[in-house]
Specification:
Layout lengths: L6 E2 L2 E2 L1 H30 L4 H30 L1 H22 L16 H32 L6 H30 L2 E2 L5 E2 L1 H21 L13 H18 L21 H17 L3 H7 L5 H6 L5 E2 L2 E2 L7 H24 L6 H28 L9 E8 L5 E5 L2 E5 L3 E2 L4 E4 L6 E3 L6 E2 L9 E8 L2 E6 L11 E7 L5 E5 L2 E6 L3 E2 L3 E3 L5 E5 L10 E3 L8 E8 L4 E3 L21 E3 L5 E9 L10 H24 L6 H26 L4 H24 L6 H33 L1
Parallel strand pairs: 7-14, 16-23
Antiparallel strand pairs: 1-2, 3-4, 5-6, 7-10, 7-11, 8-9, 8-12, 12-13, 14-15, 16-19, 16-20, 17-18, 17-21, 21-22, 23-26, 24-25
Length: about 725
Amino acid sequence: TVSFCQSCFGYPLSIFFIVVNEFCERFSYYGMRALLILYFTLFIRWDDNLSTAIYHTFVALCYLTPILGALIADSWLGKFKTIVSLSIVYTIGQVVLAVSSINDLTDGNRDGTPDSLPVHVALSMIGLALIALGTGGIKPCVSAFGGDQFEEGQEKQRNRFFSIFYLAINAGSLLSTIITPILRVQQCGIHSKQSCYPLAFGVPAALMAVSLIVFLIGSRMYKKFQPQGNIMAKVVKCIGFAIKNRIRHRSKKFPKREHWLDWAKEKYDERLVSQIKMVTRVMFLYIPLPMFWALFDQQGSRWTLQATTMNGRMGIIEIQPDQMQTVNAILIVILVPIMEAVVYPLIAKCGFNFTSLKRMTVGMFLASMAFVLAAIVQVEIDKTLPVFPKGNEVQVKVLNIGNDNMTISFPGEMMTLNQMSQTNEFMTFDVDKLSINISSTGSPVTPVTHNFEQGHRHTLLVWAPSQYRVIKDGLDEKPDKGENGIRFVNAFDESFNITMDGTVYVNVNSHNASEYQFFPSGTKSITISSTEISQQCGRDFNSPRLEFGGAYTYVIRSTVSTRSMISEVPSDFIDVSLHIHLGHSKELTRVDGCPELKVFEDISPNIVNMALQIPQYFLLTCGEVVFSVTGLEFSYSQAPSNMKSVLQAGWLLTVAVGNIIVLIVAGVGQMSQQWAEYILFAALLLFVCIVFGIMARFYTYVNPAEIEAQFDEDEKKKNLEKDNLYPTLDSVSQTQM
């Protein structure tokens, strides 16, 4: 009788610790991975191609190290000790990565940016290397260790355990990709407020520590087996011997053998050789599969970067770019039971033989079409991008920050600007033909004398007919990663400092503009610091709500009214002065000379909504369901009982190779248009899909159980023959005696 402390509802109590361990570990991994591409681009400030390359190098390592983990577990430490030791490595890696994201770690001058970025890069690379070793090393051990906990006759419970185990993986993935991006956009820091990467990476680190502790708590309940030797090593040795033996006997005087692995029969028994033949037939079909993973794993890189150029506002909900990956996890939970319970039975009733390999072919086709949709979305995004000057061109915008109307004349065009207004857009001119004149009623014409730099945008600040300043804009592209560029123009006669959401604009000079600084979406606090401003004046403001990818000029000017009633102003109203916070009072006495803000739009925010990514996620997830789940089932059905771990290693290897393919394309391709890269990947997978379909057409399904049963039968016959032979020999001997 099994006591309740060892069994619960017919299941070994130990498996509940294993399931919780897997949930926490997957939360830790996917929560960290969801942030990774934006951490590279926003914190470390790598460009998109380098960030994508490092991201996929990390993912590739995560799927190469399972082979190492399997070797350690089967040949040296056993599953339990391997899980514990590599989980410690894993936890240390997560902690190191979280520490690397602390901005104040090297921010000695407290200006909000790290003074020694290489320190952060080095720490993050060390952390990622440890994480790759840890997560990959325990990957082949945890599920197998859970299966070891069941007794003979508990096959039903074991199958349900694997279903619960898979559910824990998806639950951890889903929750983490929702929660950690929310933590990322919070503001934290000791000396300056920044996106809270330490917290966003710290929570996955804490969950990994919890995962290890939970696993250790159940230690006394586990069934632990000693290492039995690694079957992968035997397979490699057998294949190596067959190849060497064939090379040694390549002369024509040696007769050919039916299969190249038959050259291993001199050293290895026929059963092992036959089993390896079955494995190599499946492995041959694995050759085209990495191309699917090359597309699939770009959800966390290219597709997340695409989301940063889109608007995440969906009604009252604001989606962060790295949260879009949750669409995949949600759809997986929905589509897997629908496929198994509805789609596949319906296809079978229609009389169509929808075999495993046909399903995988369809999955590859769907993934290819998902990237066609991604390219279409990218084209729509590109249509909304501003046009910047090229070659000999310059672009000019005029901003009147004075109290009089100004008339501005350009070649072939003249316009009048009211006080505190700007031209509707940047105007493009040939730098060699550009001439600008400023005039006002009762004032002479003033020509603008300035050497405009070709290929750049410029802002002409005007506050009197004879007083102006030309400013070269620091933006030569739309703000990326969904951030907003903000600069301040000082219309006062003295300089002052401005703090916006923890970022300090130092010494903004009179009638001049600051450099652009970049901020994520949301409402930001603004504080003006100056000894010249009266103590009776308010200095704290709120910005209008920032969306995604815009650029704005905030003009600080002096008020002219004496007293007004201030009603509540909507936070997203951009064309009026912003309300000043003085407690909860709505009545405000204004003194001449107090500062107020006027907001002008330089670059419009992103207008293509992230919801347009949902169709491509839907197609890719459908492809994953019919490709990945079916592929694992096919591999197991075609593998001998003792070779399933070999095929599991081969399957994970295809994921690693797929990420290496992305590395090659991102590093070598360097396409100027992102939509073209999407089309390239779609075309490559479509070609591979056709090749795989042809290979699948010639594949013959086998039943490994029947083949192994035949070997068992043959061995029994041989043993019977031996048993019958010995009595005969004995009788002959006695007769002779």
